[in-house]
Amino acid sequence: MTYIAIKDLSLTYQTKTKSVHALSHIDLDIEEGEFVSLIGPSGCGKSTLLSTIGALLEPTSGSVTIAGQTVQEVRKQRKIGNVFQEARLLPWRTVGANIAYLSELAGQRPRQSEIQEIADFVGIGAFLNSYPHELSGGMRQRVSLCRAMILDPMVLLMDEPFGALDAITREKMQVELLRIWEETKKTIVFVTHAIDEAAYLSDRIVVMSARPGRIQADYVNPLVRPRE
Ligand code: ADP
Ligand code: ADP
Hints:
32% of the residues lie in helices and 29% in strands. By secondary structure, the chain is α/β, with parallel strands linked by helices. A hairpin with a 4-residue loop joins strand 9 and strand 10 (214-220). The protein starts with a strand and ends in an 8-residue tail after the last strand. The protein has helices at 46-53, 71-76, 95-105, 112-122, 137-149, 167-184, 195-201, and strands spanning 2-14, 19-31, 35-39, 61-66, 69-70, 80-83, 155-159, 188-191, 204-209, 214-220. Strands 6-7-8-3-9-10 form a six-stranded mixed β-sheet, sandwiched between helices. It has a four-stranded antiparallel β-sheet with strand order 2-1-4-5. This is ABC transporter ATP-binding protein. Keywords: ATP-binding, Nucleotide-binding, Transport. It comes from Leucobacter muris. Residues 4-228 form the ABC transporter domain.
């Protein structure tokens, strides 16, 4: 059954000198619990599409709904988890306080036990009192993932989350993300330009092409590893 429904979505950026047609008439249905990768060359509109799914950008036309609600409503309830290429942590707050931050903005202060539980789950339970600058890039991305997961998001939107990590750390994080996905069954939309990463992680691979951004192909991943 369709969970995320993207209908006839177009987005044109207006700059002082030109209009950039970043997305053109995109239709895409995503099911609950699916792990979908969006791939394609640089500039084909992957980030724009992901940002529109998360209501960080307003489309020029078309709509996105999640479980029948507009994505703007879902975002207002802070039920969208975002993970970006940079962790975007607040440097003056501890890891624990960073994890709590978005919930606090939503007027809920998570219990310490809740923060501990999610941090343990994502492998940073021992670092709650550390500051972001004391952590490696991989660890900072785990904090960013915890900050998103503590919201119990309806969808996890990840924009090249491992793109800035070294190869070994990236591989560790991919294994970790798969475990988290298998245990939580979250719906994940994952942007990457690395086909091997998409093939390793996702059930489904949506290929975009540029100028203007369209969906060129939509595959059930034939390489998907056996899942127990
Ligand atoms: P991708 O994530 O696949 O690299 P983007 O979604 O970032 O692609 O960009 C799609 C197109 O929109 C590109 O041509 C890019 O240059 C353009 N673009 C992205 N952001 C803006 C912006 N804020 N203003 C104008 N053009 C933009
Ligand atoms: P704004 O509404 O001005 O974009 P917010 O106060 O909502 O910022 O959020 C503060 C910071 O948290 C920003 O860096 C933003 O990118 C990030 N953020 C906002 N919402 C989410 C979310 N659902 N998941 C992860 N990070 C988020």
